[in-house]
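User: quick one, sequence for these tokens?
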């Protein structure tokens, strides 16, 4: 929810919804504003954070279990490290990467929609109306 609040900003100045930085059409309705660069920046930050997880070798930490000196503690620690390795390398990493891809796709979709909307108000013979 916080990310959505950062990426989409309610606009109360009466401008039409659109991409930040574009010309605005004044009107009486409220809308929202989307900054595709902010979406892409968030996606990059997610990817950067996920790539750092590749350096963490949680599974290797389970190999230190024999140093515990207690068989049950060794077994529990090894299982914990294997579970965390699975969670980090598969579940969390894949979810984060999918979120980053969705942010990038959303940025492209907003730009395409804005271009299509702008083109619908352009006359080939006369130029922008």
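Assistant:
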């Amino acid at each position: 929810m916080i990310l959505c609040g950062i990426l989409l900003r309610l606009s109360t100045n009466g401008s039409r919804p659109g991409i930040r930085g574009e010309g605005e059409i004044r009107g009486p309705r409220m809308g929202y504003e989307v900054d595709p660069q902010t979406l892409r920046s968030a996606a990059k930050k997610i990817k950067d954070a996920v790539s750092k997880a590749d350096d963490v070798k949680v599974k290797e930490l389970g190999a230190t279990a024999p140093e515990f000196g207690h068989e049950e503690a060794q077994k529990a620690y090894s299982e914990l490290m294997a579970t965390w390795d699975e969670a980090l390398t598969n579940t969390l990493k894949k979810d984060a990467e999918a979120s980053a891809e969705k942010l990038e796709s959303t940025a492209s979709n907003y730009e395409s929609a804005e271009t299509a909307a702008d083109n619908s108000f352009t006359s080939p013979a006369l130029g922008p109306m």
